[in-house]
Amino acid sequence: MEIRYLGTGAAEGIPAVFCQCETCRKAAKQKGKDIRTRASTLVNGKLLLDISPDLYFHKLCYDLDLWKLKAVCVTHSHSDHFDSQELTRRSSANYCHIHSERPLTVYGNSKVCRMGRESFKEEFGKEEDPSVVFLLAQPFSEIRMEELTVIPIPANHDPREMCFIYLIEEGETLILYANDTGLLGSEVYDFLKGKRLSLVSLDCTFGFNKYHGGTHMGIEENLAVVKHLEEAGCLTPSTVITATHFSHNCNMSHQELEQRLGEAGIRAAWDGMMLKWK
Ligand SMILES: [Zn+2]
Ligand SMILES: [Zn+2]
Ligand SMILES: [Zn+2]
Question: What transmembrane ranges does the database entry give (predicted)?
Answer without folding.
Answer: none
